[in-house]
Write a structure and sequence with these properties.
- By secondary structure, the protein is of the alpha/beta class.
- It folds into 3 domains: about 5-80, Orthogonal Bundle (Arc Repressor Mutant, subunit A); about 95-170 and about 280-310, Periplasmic binding protein-like II (D-Maltodextrin-Binding Protein, domain 2), CATH 3.40.190.10; about 175-270, 3-Layer(aba) Sandwich (D-Maltodextrin-Binding Protein, domain 2).
- It contains 13 helices and 12 strands.
- The strands form 3 sheets. The chain has a 5-stranded mixed sheet, with helices on both faces. The protein has a 5-stranded mixed sheet with strand order 9-8-10-7-11. The protein has a two-stranded antiparallel ribbon with strand order 1-2.
- Helix 2 (about 10-25) crosses helix 4, helix 3 (about 25-35) crosses helix 4 (about 40-50) and helix 7 (about 115-125) crosses helix 13 (about 290-310).
């Protein structure tokens, strides 16, 4: 089919259809996300394919997937929709001296660890800036970032299976560590705590995302400890209270308890094996440049990390393998 006058025939709702179908992978989920019935969504898809002169999606048993032509249309659709959202944010910012908005995707560990302090700093510096938070897993947040529904994603940085054109900026480390209350009998020992000694105390593990869970299981395997502990919880508050009120021990990303670690209520138990590195930071689109509101959020995040460092935070917490102290937020150690 001829493709003529695309600039006159394409409509924004049709671009949203292409974006939603790729994001959700099925007509049912895409129609629910857009607030359309499936017949209306199917008509819109047919109209878009007629205008572009190409089949854009092919059906498979679990939904739909884009064709090569569909990938090209989706890429442009997301750029157009993203630019419109950026324009909206800039217009909002013009309406108020300290206004603007930022949409932040956050992974679960960062949501309870780093993000609260960063937002407190941001609200103090920019009280008029509106913040929209979306918590989820990496695989859920990256499509929203690619479609510009999110401005950035905060949390653990996982290497992409295939290049995705996104910027990954490491800013801190959030290693898996064994945590116990200050004054715990294990902390009276000199040097690293053996796995046998650790096994003598009740262990509570967080019920977290699959990837974090795999990293916790990996550290347990390195220690020679079983992963099928009887007590697990998805409640951060429950685990915290149990650690503070008993001799229970937990293994989790230490940033989940950064406040109690900074206050000295909880301590990192030095282990005989090194904790695998877990770089964390922000993920941004490669282009266009961040808006002023996103830059303000980034500045608040960096400031909060610097404050943690100044208070002996990630850099001052004992290293999980030897009990030595880290030198900075990225986990680099001082040379002796």
């Amino acid at each position: 089919m001829p493709r003529r006058f695309l600039d006159q025939r394409l409509k924004l709702p049709l671009l949203r259809v292409a974006d939603a179908l790729d994001t959700h992978g099925s007509l049912l989920k895409a129609s629910a996300a857009l607030g359309l019935g499936q017949p209306a969504l199917s008509r819109s898809l047919r109209e878009l394919e007629e205008i572009t002169g190409a089949a854009l999606f092919e059906r498979h048993p679990r939904g739909v997937r884009p064709t090569a032509a569909g990938v090209a249309v989706i890429r442009v659709a997301r750029r157009v929709l993203g630019e419109l959202r950026r324009m909206e944010a800039e217009l909002d910012a013009l309406g108020a001296a300290e206004g603007g908005s930022v949409a932040v995707g956050v992974l679960p560990v960062a949501a309870v660890g780093i993000l609260p302090g960063a937002l407190i700093a941001l609200r103090a510096a920019r009280p008029g800036l509106r913040v929209r938070l979306h918590q989820g897993r990496t695989e859920e947040l990256l499509p929203l970032l690619a479609s510009r529904e999110l401005d950035l994603v905060v949390g653990r940085l996982y290497a992409p299976a295939v290049p995705d054109g996104l910027q990954r900026l490491p800013m801190w480390e959030e290693p898996i560590a064994a945590l116990a209350r200050a004054g715990h009998p294990l902390l009276r020992r000199r040097g690293a705590v053996t796995a046998a000694a650790l096994a003598g105390y009740e262990m509570v593990l967080p019920t977290v995302s699959q990837r974090v869970g795999q990293e916790i299981e990996h550290l347990l395997a390195l220690l020679g400890l079983p992963g099928d502990v009887p007590l697990r919880s998805s409640s951060y508050g429950f685990i915290r209270e149990l650690l503070l009120a008993s001799d229970a021990v937990s293994i989790m990303p230490r940033s989940m308890m950064v406040g109690d670690l900074l206050r000295g209520a909880l301590r990192v138990v030095p282990l005989p094996v090194p904790a695998p590195p877990r770089p964390a930071g922000v993920i941004l689109p490669a282009d266009p440049p961040p808006t002023e509101a996103v830059s303000a959020f980034m500045g608040a995040l960096r400031g909060h990390l610097a404050e943690i460092q100044a208070r002996g935070g990630f850099g001052g917490m004992p290293d999980a393998d030897t009990g030595r102290r880290r030198s900075d937020t990225t986990g680099r150690r001082r040379r002796a």
